[in-house]
């Protein structure tokens, strides 16, 4: 993991705390999101623990994607969106005006619902992040980062002979793993995944889920999913959202076997959603 | 009642069958309307093109007469000065007349008849002979047979564009002699170089489009050099950076309105600002280019914004999700992906600009300009204005030249549009 040590992102706070497996990586306190007049997310207080997969589940429109997009300020891009409350990464407020959003997004990477490789070569897709952040000192460095990222995304074996071919020519599952490789190429600490498997077939989904489990060793992962089986398979903690509110948060096992709230029970047993 | 009974509605029920047939008929009619619309458009286009080509094709050739010319030293250089001034000031018409006398010895004593026939040889013949002598002084003292251009009335007569009598502008005696020359093969059609190498002229057979082509070229270079960067920068700012508020809405509405403003209004604006206030030279392609920039800028901004809008939002998300700044996102991803669309829009705007005449009339690019403009500051005309000027000329021979100029202009447009299609196909990305 030579690349991890090169990452310029380990902040003094995280070093001081020496975060272990159960340490808090990100914490939101009373986070609210408004889209114009619409109150989309209501007072969310939630911890995201280091080196765990946190799954966000809930019916469509419940605010789980909105919450996810708060964590790396992707909501900034949306016209008329307003965020209040506190969102901390390693104890530092990510909405702090001193904190550069570009750096934040380098530390908190994102994988989207629809595989969205750039219409460029496979190599350039993965190399783009390191290039704009100046992570590689030489071409050999960059090659190493690209190959390492593709390996960790479990894609290298499939694409090693066609790195110069367009990334858009891969299958859907491969494209999504390419997007994951692209996200981890900038050595983020947290990876946000917005329904990463919803556009994939079951076999590709299985591969991506396996990958998520592997990635947990090195990254903190937050995943939004519509599939409760997926949440149960990949996550250690699960948060259930409903109508913009966080209803229940707990260990995945507990949420799926012994939910405390009636709403949660109703949702996971398929009574609504 | 949730499931339609297919067997009954398909076969059993007569009303349903009638409804179905009515729907098929309506659909067939609808398709016929479309085909009829396209057919009529194609018909108009065909009529237009055929008319122009039928009228204009003959202007690409000119009639030349084979004359025996003796480069007589006594006429050209009586003092043996051998200097350029003497040679270029010499009387080349005398050589032409001498050649005509060689062909028709009876003209030697008939000054009036000789002058009459001499008028059937273009003044261009004199300058062609002059150029030959200046290039090759060794010709002096030799005799050569040379194909020389005939005057416009003789040219029209030979091409059969005018009646074979004195209505053609030539005397009967001259017509008879030209017929005699034609019967021995001393008249022929050859490619009309003047059309592409000369500027405008009062003599139709010597009039060319080069001045107008160069003028249009200069104006277009200035237009594209200004309107492309300005238009793209404006579009990128409005689309990618500007907040959506009342002020940007107002700008947007005004740009859309400007695109609909008649181009002559932009010509008036250019006249006032560039000529009256800034004092730039009149009739210059520089000012023409500036006026055409005003005309094409709104179109380019609008098409560039459409192209930027067409870049899928997830490209932006992917770039920003990786921590690209807004500028990096635009320069690395959005703009390259929008470029084919922007280029197509720009070329179409340029194609409109090259065919634009009204604003050029306002800033004086409608003058009679013989010289080929050497710089964008020299007086010039442009192709559409040249068409207008020639169409207004009374000489019969300008009719075919007007059509020829239209063909040249259309050829420019076809080339530009083909380039637009090629660029779009080449750089188009699918996702």
List the helices and strands and how they pair.
The complex is a heterodimer of chains A (about 270) and B (about 425).
Chain A: H1 2-6, H2 12-17, E1 24-35, E2 38-49, E3 53-57, H3 64-70, E4 81-89, E5 92-93, H4 101-107, E6 108-111, H5 122-133, H6 139-152, H7 156-159, H8 172-184, E7 190-194, H9 202-215, E8 220-224, H10 228-234, E9 237-242, E10 245-251, H11 252-257, H12 262-268
Parallel strand pairs in A: 3-8, 3-9, 6-7, 7-8
Antiparallel strand pairs in A: 1-2, 1-4, 4-5, 9-10
Helix pairs in contact in A: 5-6, 5-8, 6-8, 8-9
Chain B: H1 6-12, H2 14-56, E1 61-70, H3 73-76, H4 84-89, H5 92-103, H6 111-118, H7 123-135, E2 143-149, H8 152-158, H9 172-183, E3 187-191, H10 194-197, H11 210-241, H12 246-259, H13 263-277, H14 285-309, H15 313-321, H16 326-354, H17 358-362, H18 383-391, H19 397-427
Antiparallel strand pairs in B: 1-2, 1-3
Walk me through this protein's architecture.
The complex is a heterodimer of chains A (273) and B (431). Chain A is α/β, with parallel strands linked by helices and 273 residues long. Chain A has helices at 2-6, 12-17, 64-70, 101-107, 122-133, 139-152, 156-159, 172-184, 202-215, 228-234, 252-257, 262-268, and strands at 24-35, 38-49, 53-57, 81-89, 92-93, 108-111, 190-194, 220-224, 237-242, 245-251. Chain A has twelve helices and ten strands. In chain A, 46% of the residues are buried. Chain A has one domain (2-268): Rossmann fold (3-Layer(aba) Sandwich), CATH 3.40.50. Chain A has a six-stranded mixed sheet, with helices on both faces. Chain B is mainly alpha-helical and 431 residues long. Chain B contains 19 helices and three strands. Chain B has helices at 6-12, 14-56, 73-76, 84-89, 92-103, 111-118, 123-135, 152-158, 172-183, 194-197, 210-241, 246-259, 263-277, 285-309, 313-321, 326-354, 358-362, 383-391, 397-427; strands at 61-70, 143-149, 187-191. Chain B has a three-stranded antiparallel sheet. In chain B, helix 11 packs across helix 18, helix 15 packs antiparallel against helix 16 (326-354) and helix 18 packs antiparallel against helix 19. The radius of gyration of chain B is 31 Å and the shape is elongated. Chain A binds chain B through residues 72, 74, 77, 79, 102-106, 109-110, 112, 114, 116-119, 128-129, 132-133, 168, 179, 182-183, 186, and chain B through 244, 314-325, 328, 332-333, 337, 429-431.
């Amino acid at each position: 993991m030579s690349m991890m040590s090169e990452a310029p992102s380990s902040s003094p706070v995280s070093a001081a705390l020496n975060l272990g497996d159960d340490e808090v990586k990100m914490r939101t306190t009373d986070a609210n999101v408004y889209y114009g007049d619409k109150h989309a997310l209501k007072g969310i207080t939630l911890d995201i623990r280091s080196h765990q997969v946190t799954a966000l589940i809930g019916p469509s429109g419940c605010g789980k994607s909105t919450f996810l997009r708060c964590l790396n300020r992707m909501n900034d891009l949306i016209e008329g969106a307003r965020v209040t409350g506190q969102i901390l990464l390693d104890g530092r407020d990510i909405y702090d005006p001193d904190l550069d959003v570009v750096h934040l997004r380098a530390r908190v990477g994102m994988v989207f619902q629809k595989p969205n490789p750039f219409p460029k070569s496979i190599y350039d897709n993965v190399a783009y992040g390191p290039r704009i952040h100046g992570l590689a000192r030489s071409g050999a460095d960059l090659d190493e980062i690209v190959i390492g990222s593709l390996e960790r995304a479990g894609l290298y074996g499939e694409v090693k002979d066609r790195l110069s071919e367009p990334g858009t020519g891969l299958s859907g599952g491969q494209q999504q793993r390419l997007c994951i490789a692209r996200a981890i190429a900038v050595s983020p600490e947290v990876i946000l995944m917005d329904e990463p498997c919803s556009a994939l077939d079951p076999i590709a989904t299985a591969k991506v889920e396996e990958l998520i489990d592997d990635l947990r060793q090195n990254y903190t992962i937050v995943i939004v999913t519509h599939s409760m089986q997926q949440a149960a398979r990949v996550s250690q903690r699960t948060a259930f959202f409903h109508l913009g509110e966080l209803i229940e948060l707990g260990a995945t096992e507990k949420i799926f076997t012994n939910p405390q709230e009636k709403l949660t029970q109703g949702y996971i047993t398929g009574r609504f959603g | 009642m949730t499931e339609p009974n297919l067997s009954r509605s398909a076969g059993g029920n007569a009303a349903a069958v009638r409804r179905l047939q009515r729907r098929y008929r309506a659909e067939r009619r609808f398709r016929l309307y479309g085909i009829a619309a396209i057919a009529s458009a194609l018909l108009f286009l065909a009529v237009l093109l055929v008319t122009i080509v039928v009228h204009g094709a003959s202007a690409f050739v000119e009639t030349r007469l084979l004359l025996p010319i003796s480069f007589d030293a006594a006429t050209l250089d009586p003092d043996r000065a051998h200097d350029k001034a003497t040679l270029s000031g010499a009387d080349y018409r005398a050589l032409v007349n001498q050649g005509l006398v060689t062909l028709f010895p009876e003209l030697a004593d008939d000054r009036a008849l000789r002058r009459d026939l001499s008028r059937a040889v273009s003044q261009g013949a004199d300058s062609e002979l002059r150029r030959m002598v200046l290039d090759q002084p060794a010709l002096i003292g030799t005799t050569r047979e040379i194909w020389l251009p005939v005057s416009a009335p003789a040219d029209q007569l030979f091409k059969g564009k005018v009646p074979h009598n004195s209505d053609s502008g030539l005397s009967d005696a001259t017509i008879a002699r030209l017929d005699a020359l034609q019967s021995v093969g001393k008249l022929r059609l050859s490619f009309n170089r003047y059309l592409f190498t000369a500027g405008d002229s009062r003599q139709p057979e010597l009039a060319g489009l080069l001045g107008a082509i160069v003028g249009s070229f200069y104006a277009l270079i200035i237009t594209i050099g200004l309107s492309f960067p300005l238009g793209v920068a404006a579009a990128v700012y409005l689309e990618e950076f500007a907040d959506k508020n009342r002020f940007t809405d107002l700008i947007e509405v005004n740009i859309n309105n400007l695109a609909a403003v008649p181009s002559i209004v932009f010509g008036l604006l250019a006249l006032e600002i560039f000529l009256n206030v800034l004092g730039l030279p009149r009739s210059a392609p520089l000012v023409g280019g500036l006026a055409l920039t005003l005309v094409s800028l709104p179109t380019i901004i609008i098409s560039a914004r459409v192209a930027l809008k067409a870049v899928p939002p997830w490209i932006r998300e992917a770039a920003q999700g990786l921590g690209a700044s807004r500028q990096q996102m635009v320069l690395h991803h959005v703009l390259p992906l929008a470029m084919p669309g922007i280029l197509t829009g720009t070329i179409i705007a340029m194609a409109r600009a090259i065919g634009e005449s009204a604003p050029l009339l306002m800033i004086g690019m409608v003058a009679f300009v013989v010289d080929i403009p050497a710089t964008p500051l020299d007086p010039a005309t442009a192709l559409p204005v040249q068409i207008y000027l020639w169409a207004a000329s009374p000489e019969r021979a300008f009719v075919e030249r007007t059509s020829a100029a239209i063909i040249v202009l259309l050829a420019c447009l076809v080339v530009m549009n083909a380039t637009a299609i090629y660029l779009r196909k080449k750089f188009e990305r699918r996702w």
